[in-house]
Amino acid sequence: MFVARSIAADHRDLIHDVSFDFHGRRMATCSSDQSVKVWDKGENGEWHCTASWKTHSGSVWRVTWAHPEFGQVLASCSFDRTAAVWEEIVGESNDKLRGQSHWVKRTTLVDSRTSVTDVKFAPKHMGLMLATCSADGVVRIYEAPDVMNLSQWSLQHEISCKLSCSCISWNPSSSRAHAPMIAVGSDDGSPNILAKVQIYEYNENTRKYAKAETLMTVTDPVHDIAFAPNLGRSFHILAVATKDVRIFTLKPLRKELSTSSGMTKFEVQLVAQFDHHNSQVWRVSWNITGTVLASSGDDGCVRLWKANYMDNWKCTGILKGNGSPVNASSTQQGVFNAPVGTATSTLQNSVNGSSVGRNGKRYFPPPHRRLTSSKDTSNLSTTKCKSNYFLKKYYMCTLLASTV
Fold it and tell me: Is residue 292 situated within a structural domain?
């Protein structure tokens, strides 16, 4: 059961992204008003805005947290063609903010010539690394050689995807058997470009990222993409948000069947496809064990998916933007299930809505599109964008907290 709480976010324009930190006690939001806001959860469960500042000179598409072992660090990306890294510090003795925490910009990454559409920190076992993707079709991977000096970032890799990029996802697996891997989604509307999801893997021989797989069956614009946490599985699970929800497995083939260049070959299988949203799906997010998937779409609902004892994926819950539950059994339609893994547990990360339009230009949907975000079942958030045409636009976050 979920209880809804609304937060007056006080953003002056559309909210594009909501992101929880590792512990789910802090939340960051970003908006077309060019600002980022940080929220802290109080002992009474209420959320309070503890910081708000202008971050870019254009709409801010995404915001993301680094792992807390690197400190309180945020990254944001924008239509202004840049990504920025921010760190929370405590004012020094000669500072006007003595004893108070505040956010400072550590660096601005200016390599892109077009809108930077997504930004993601790498899994912590890879060190402090940051990936960005942009509408010019390039994924850039940066590294901070000294985690104590976040003003220095070096560009380590540039991956040319040859299609406009809308979203990226690191494979979180820390197994030595799995090379670092990143998935890239595209919303490119060109009729000449069919496959919209590409998988890149790090090659130890060449010390570069190379294309390992292309999901040929995904031909519609992709709005979000998410690898599931691995937790000992020998294969990978990837969720894709497009006109529906799709779940793929990528099973590495035996080494003798892999390419001579050392790249891993995968057996790719579509194991589940759901059109229950009956609309565009904007966000997908896995729980911490990779067994429950949350999705949000233009129908204004957050839907939860997990595999049953027969290893078939089913919709296990539907939540409206106001927190009220919907009978999942009454909405089962257009479902395709196939075996993959088992399922239990709670929600992680963010399921929040934003969209990149054709050729990197953002498409703004009708005012009542719901955008969602989740860290775990105690922090499942739905961001609602509303418009008051007689006064001014106002924007709210609705947090759905589990009571079980």
Answer: yes
Contact by Cβ (8 Å): 50, 38: yes
The whole-angstrom separation of Cα 57 and Cα 37 is 16
Q: Greatest CA span in the chain, whole angstroms?
A: 67
Last residue of one domain, picked from the residues 107, 126, 160: 160
* SS3 category, 12: coil
Q: Are residue 44 and residue 86 in the same domain, yes or no?
A: yes
Angle, CA of 387, 388 and 389, to the nearest 5°:
105
Question: pLDDT tens for residues 21-49?
Answer: 999 999 999 999 999 999 999 999 899 99
Q: Is 177 found in the same domain as 105?
A: no
For 58-153, strand residue ranges (E) read 60-65, 73-78, 83-90, 101-109, 116-121, 129-134, 138-143
Q: Is 398 within 8 Å of 310 (Cβ atoms)? A: no
- Total of domains in the chain: 2
What are the structure tokens assigned to 375, written together? 């860290």
Please tell me the pTM assigned to this model. Answer: 0.80
Q: What is the CATH number of the domain that holds 145?
A: 2.130.10.10
The residue from 140, 160, 180 where one domain ends is 160
pLDDT at 60 over 90: yes
Q: Are residues 28 and 127 in the same domain?
A: yes
Distance CA 124, CA 379 (A): 22
pLDDT digits (tens, 9 = 90+) for 183-211: 999 998 877 778 999 999 999 889 999 99
Residue 187 and residue 146 share a domain = no
Q: How far are the Cα atoms of 28, 76, 121, 164, 208 from residue 381, in angstroms, in the given order?
A: 12, 19, 21, 29, 37
> Residue 110 is part of which domain span?
14-160
- What residues does 30 pair with on adjacent strands? 17, 36
Element (H, E) at 380: strand 380-386
Q: Is the domain of 219 the same as that of 117?
A: no
Inform me whether the pLDDT recorded for 95 exceeds 90. no
The angle subtended at Cα 13 by Cα 12 and Cα 16, nearest 5°, is: 130
